[in-house]
Amino acid sequence: MKVSKEKLHQLIANKIHAAGLSKDHADIVSDVLVHADAKGIHSHGAVRVEYYAERISKGGTNNSPNFTFEKTGPCSAVFDGDNGAGHVAAKLSMDEAIKMAEENGIAVVGVRRIGHSGSLSYFVQQASSAGMIGISVCQSDPMVVPYGGAETYYGTNPIAFSAPGETDNITFDMATTVQAWGKVLDARSKNAKIPDTWAVDKDGNPTTDPFAVTALVPIAGPKGYGLMMMVDILSGVLLGLPFGKHVSSMYHDLTQGRELGQLHIVINPAYFTDPVMFRKHITQVMNELNAVKPAPGFDKVQFPGQNSLAREKQSEVNGIDIVDEIYDYLVSDDIYQKSYDNKSPFAS
């Protein structure tokens, strides 16, 4: 069904608040989730609310965290999230990074001890909306085999980037795996096969059976493997946090904090070039990419993130598509109806 952005925001915020987060923090979590749904990234939208609500209600998300922000240099800082909602810690730490970049041209802010923070595009667009370049990387559960391996070590370890044009921002947000786990679940629900490039079975062999999947694979083989290693070092090892296979599972013991890490980098174009010309040239890049002759089978070359941008604009007018089951849960009085506690990350 279609739901307006405003109504969806209120429904999500109400449920998160009922689970135990303060109203202010629940509003921020809702902002990030609605942002994802509006862009068509439904794997990081309202579908996550029930999981978050269960973890909050069981104490695995600190509902009254003691956030701290420590500058370690003119352009560096560490934000400690005290295992509060990752969305909140990531947003507030990006706010601080933007302030530092305004003053000193660049900011690198490590975000320690947080929960899952959702779609990274939200945070990098905080920076681009302020006229700056935003980059963000974060850890995730071990669900991916290293190139040449037959058992998991790294997570999907996403990377996001955004830069401001004259009217729109150019943004991309990508996992370092060939395909998201949600796509495998979708194939299971349809009893359909998957491409043999997406995942492997328990022996490390490529599989087309979604029910045989025990791990995802990196994008572009060793290149994606290198990228996810880089993300893990920047958001884990660098911040003194669990790394690699030691990163906590999303579903293991929802009574405990996840101790995850994230890293924001913000660059102020005014310290490198004319900021007005910078935005003009970003817009020129978008237009020139759109003008590239399309290959057979394509109507148009789009710049990265253009589809999501179009969906977001359409959602302002047409509302957001929400699965009926999710809507029914959001309007119910239940904190959660099904438990995610101690669920295998590869379960249905």
Strand content: 15-25%
Mean pLDDT: 95
Fraction in helix: 25-40%
Number of separate helices: 10
| Topology pattern, helix = H, strand = E | EHHHEEHEHEEEHEEHEHHEH
**First CA to last CA: what distance?**
23 Å
Give the overall silhouette: globular
Question: Any low-confidence stretches, pLDDT <50, length ≥5?
Answer: none
Could you please describe the fold and organization of this structure?
Helices cover 37% and strands 16% of the residues. The protein has 10 helices and 11 strands. A hairpin with a 2-residue loop joins strand 2 (68-73) and strand 3 (76-80). Helix 1 packs across helix 2 (23-38). It is globular, with a radius of gyration of 20 Å. 48% of the residues are buried. The mean pLDDT is 95.
Helices, strands, pairings?
Blueprint: E1 2-3, H1 5-19, H2 23-38, H3 49-57, E2 68-73, E3 76-80, H4 86-104, E4 106-114, H5 121-129, E5 133-138, E6 159-164, E7 169-174, H6 181-189, E8 199-200, E9 215-216, H7 222-235, E10 260-267, H8 275-290, H9 306-318, E11 320-321, H10 324-331
Parallel strand pairs: 3-4
Antiparallel strand pairs: 1-11, 2-3, 4-10, 5-6, 5-10, 6-7, 8-9
Helix pairs in contact: 1-2, 1-3, 2-4, 4-5
